[in-house]
Amino acid sequence: MARHQHDPDHLHPRPQLQSWISAPGSKNEVMVSHGRAPWYGPDGKNIEAYVVGIAGGSASGKTSVARAILSALNYIPTVLILSQDSFYNAHTDEEIELAFNNDLDLDHPDAIDSSLFAKCLMDLKQGKATEIPTYSFVHHQRMPEKKYIYGASVIIVEGIMALQSPELRDLYDLKVFVNCDSDLMLARRIKRDVQERGRDVDGILDQYLRFVKSSYDNFVQPSSRYADIIVPGSSNQLAIELLVTHVKRQLDTRSLRFRKMLAQMGDDEAEVQSSKGEEHSDKQVVLLEQTNQLLGLMTILRDRTTSRGDFIFYADRLSTIVVEKALTLIPCQPKTVKTPLGVDYKGTGGDDQLVGVSILRSGGPFSHGLRRVIRDIPIGGMLIQSDPKTGEPLLLKSDLPHSIKSTETSGEVKVLLLDSQMGTGAAAMMAIRVLLDHGVLESNIIFLTYLIAKQAIHSVLRAFPSIHIVTAAIDPGLDEMHIPYNRSTLVLGESAGEADFAVRLIDGDLTTGGLEGEREKVDDQREGVQSEKELGADRFKVPIKREMEELKFSRARERRGDDGAFGEKRAWVISPGMGHIGDRYYM
Ligand SMILES: Nc1ncnc2c1ncn2[C@@H]1O[C@H](COP(=O)(O)OP(=O)(O)O)[C@@H](O)[C@H]1O
Ligand SMILES: Nc1ccn([C@@H]2O[C@H](COP(=O)(O)O)[C@@H](O)[C@H]2O)c(=O)n1
């Protein structure tokens, strides 16, 4: 049974449908819901997205079937409809003129850029980010802008030639053909093309008689032999329900209980490692030298009686030390400058390809440290939080620096990935997976943290053996806890102190009221240091608020004296640890 199917669903508010391509009449749609659960296994390897290919004649009802499936899968975090319409070839001026005279054959398989279509689909299926072209039926032309897409769990492909190319067929998990009466298709097409594509009836009929009909007979209809399921083009609710049941069943077999699996695997592996005497010897982990000065700092940070002001001051101080250490892992470029005396000085320069990515919100303190060391470094954010019921990490949003989002530069970028602590390693793994999906090289990722649970080292390095981890401390314990919560005042993302930014963003009182004000005052005192807001909070604010408006921050309620625990929330906590670093720093 599907993970969320029986959730009475204020926990999973109804997803938003958005059309993501601005060209008129675009059929591409993406459905985004509360967050994306791990799309990879504990080995860090992506589990492929489920792909449904839908073919059928023009106006047979392909898009309508795709949309019906999409709405029926409303508990799946990201479902994408990818239309073949986006992949029409770019045309020359002569071809455009022919098209306006209904003299261009746009119904031949060669009219579609099938290899680009297959490449984009392959990227998405493998969990990678991709860029989709946009096409205008009004201008008969491919548009200059491309659309960045990342993170679909289910992809529904639709197009008249969707089952035509063997390259595309190989990528589908399920092949569907929409079978519709020709007269009905023509009637629908006339109506649609007049209303949506700026055509006149004479032209539509001309084009139909010249190209559309013969293409249907010669290419489209014969491709129905590849279909697993034939769906009628009208009165098709029952067929769609059967289709959806099948897809749901397939998806259920892929669902994971990720964090628990990691915690258990970490335990086993840590035992094996200790028995071999290999604890922490891995050269990928850089533990700061345990000087008296560092131990003194850690003592203050671990002490439950440390005031919030002191906690912030010493956390900031420690983050700069960790950042400085991490920078020693990045090769320097030689750089010659002129001194004020006009003499050459042969020194070194920073790496232009270096960026920071903060796992929000716990990475916030590190962003401050990083900005103190490299003032103008681009810093992106990823909003990852825990599902309160399962403890699984959920990716709510990623806002990455341009150099990571661009396929041209992502292979060169070096990323300092920032989070206050790593408990099970689940949030860290998710963040690393996002970076890899964008083409960042594993060996170019350095994870910076104050504190890491021993087990997390094994979990993360087992999956991603080439990353580096720089930490101030390694703790032995990781305990599963069951924390009571009141359903109407749910706390999210507190497991092991890993990213829990959303909770603050969804509570108007906290973001606009007293506590935020207090934080602002602290930030104001730091010259040249970005506030939490500047570091990404605002960018995440609107969508999170909209999608999760029913969720409230229970701690705030607790402080206000509300009670009524409703259920239990699962969390993994590092021991002896530093407590909930996000809360101690921000609240
Ligand atoms: N099952 C159906 N019953 C009634 N009208 C439908 C049905 N499916 C599609 N249509 C209508 O037919 C037109 C074309 O449908 P669409 O799904 O866009 O076709 P395609 O994607 O195959 O070109 C639309 O106006 C749509 O409302
Ligand atoms: N510039 C273009 C490109 C394509 N067409 C027609 O679109 C039909 C396919 O789209 P459906 O949404 O109907 O599947 C195809 O039959 C082409 O003739 C067009 O008119 N102009």
Automatic annotation (TrEMBL):
Region (Disordered): 1-23
Highest rank taxon of the organism: Eukaryota
Biased composition (Basic and acidic residues): 1-12
Domain called Phosphoribosyltransferase: residue spans: 290-481
Stored SUPFAM superfamilies: P-loop containing nucleoside triphosphate hydrolases, PRTase-like
Swiss-Prot/TrEMBL keywords: ATP-binding, Kinase, Nucleotide-binding, Transferase
Signal sequence residues: none
PANTHER family: URIDINE KINASE (PTHR10285)
Name of the molecule in the record: Uridine kinase
Naturally occurring in which organism (per UniProt): Kwoniella newhampshirensis
